[in-house]
UniProtKB/TrEMBL annotation:
The keyword Cell membrane applies. Belongs to the amiloride-sensitive sodium channel (TC 1.A.6) family. SCNN1G subfamily. One of its GO terms (molecular function) is ligand-gated sodium channel activity. PROSITE patterns: ASC. Residues 467-490 are annotated as: Disordered. It catalyses: Na(+)(in) = Na(+)(out). The keyword RNA-binding does not apply. Keywords: Cell membrane, Disulfide bond, Ion channel, Ion transport, Membrane, Sodium, Sodium channel, Sodium transport, Transmembrane, Transmembrane helix, Transport. It is found in: Apical cell membrane. Gene3D superfamilies: Acid-sensing ion channels like domains (2.60.470.10), YojJ-like (1.10.287.770). The lineage of its organism: Eukaryota, Metazoa, Chordata, Craniata, Vertebrata. GO terms for cellular component: apical plasma membrane; sodium channel complex. It is a multi-pass membrane protein. This is Amiloride-sensitive sodium channel subunit gamma.
Amino acid sequence: RYSSMKDYLSELDKETKKALETFYGFSEGKSKVRRSVDEWNSTGSDFFKHIPLLKFEDFSKTATDLRSGQKRKIEGSVFHKDSSIVNSGDSNDIIGFQLCDANNSSECALYTFSSGVNAIQEWYKLHYMNIMAQIPLETKEKLSYSADDLLLTCFFDGLSCDKRHFTRFHHPLHGNCYTFNSGENGTILSTSTGGSEYGLQVVLYIDEADYNPFLVTSTGAKIIVHDQNEYPFIEDIGTEIETAAATSIGMHFTRSRKLSKPYSDCTETGADIPVENLYNKSYSLQICLHSCFQKAMVDSCGCAQYAQPLPAGAEYCNYKKNPNWMYCYYRLHEKFVKEQLGCQQICKDACSFKEWALTTSIAQWPSTVSEDWMLRVLSWDKGQKINKKLNKTDLANLMVFYKDLNERFISENPANTLVILLSNFGGQLGLWMSCSVVCVIEIVEVFFIDSLSIVMRRQWQKAKKWWNDRKRDRSGKPPQAGDLERQGHDNPVCIDEDLPTFNTALHLPLPQDNPLPRTPPPNYSTLRLETAFTEQLPDTLEVGQH
């Protein structure tokens, strides 16, 4: 609520209006500025004197202080990446601001913008974060809109709902935000069918008159559809809805899964990423990048940036305790955008993620014929007087629903696995070489197993021969017959070192002493001829008997 924050922002608003009056001739009625702020404004004026809005003249080193109207020399050559250095209009329209190192005044950075709107908003946001960082969280929640203030009507799946179905969380820049169906109470609501009648239908109260004119320049609300375990990055991927209109958002749900290593460089749970998750939600690339930058901010600047969660043991930056934090923050952010901080190299995509494809349509609401009675009824429900009914520009009608309940699942599968690779390899061998698994096994046996066996056998023979020769040399005795009997293959007559064959054994010389036992000759006296004749035949008698 801007009306609740004016006490804290009065000095900042005053400086902004002075800059607008100096540069654009903007002026308004002399309104009395509240000065009931405790200590935030006590040093605010001094700080605004050090970092005022400036008008640069033809890219020279001379700039005009938009607060005082005085010209002064500007030092520094570092420009913000998003600055519009090449100005399509008059060069005199270039405005910005200068940040210098509190410890070294010669180290300065210039930030210029081709549009005064962008420069003023950026400058105002910088000081706004500095002021809000010093206000306790409980106070900021009370100064923001409650669920009763925001919700006028609520329906889900054809049934009425109320603030009990919404969970509050505080966003640093947007204030109180509310999540429908967060599941924190242990219950997750589900819809019975697709279609707009069975989705979420709410009428939101948008108090346009209570907007901060310098921080927010559009009217409406910002929503995001996300899983219960995901953090809603509203400022990054939020969808804006406008007032005085009925916005219908149809959804298609898609679940995707990527393959991890070695097919991609994604991470399953983020446990392998050396970055602490500051959001207490499931891992995502955005969470990793924001957490990495916040850690670098604490390490380099000694304090945490206000727009992101606070790490343990750290505190948010403010120029009372950290007078150098703005210069440090912008230089660090410049490195982050140029991917020189190392966060983009450390953080990885998540392997599993959910996505809701949104289709948005807008219609005029309320219609001309129903505007009168509907605004009166809503004003009555709001608890206001009948003669002070709500304006349609303060209301927004929102419908979020599933177009259908079909879930699309996208997954990656490897084109070639080990089984497929072996199958394709065997098929090609069988087609072109008539080869099978048996053939491959035989080839392996012949060229590898048999060759290895031969080599090992020869090595064993050499080792055995060396060992026997060593034993004989130590004893100093000539080889005995028993040695020759046992080691005939070691005889030098053999033509090779292989075991003796039949032919090589015939060429072996007989030993001189202690002949080897041989097969005895047959005993012929035992050979007798047994015949059936009783007398000796005449032709077998000896001739000497005649």
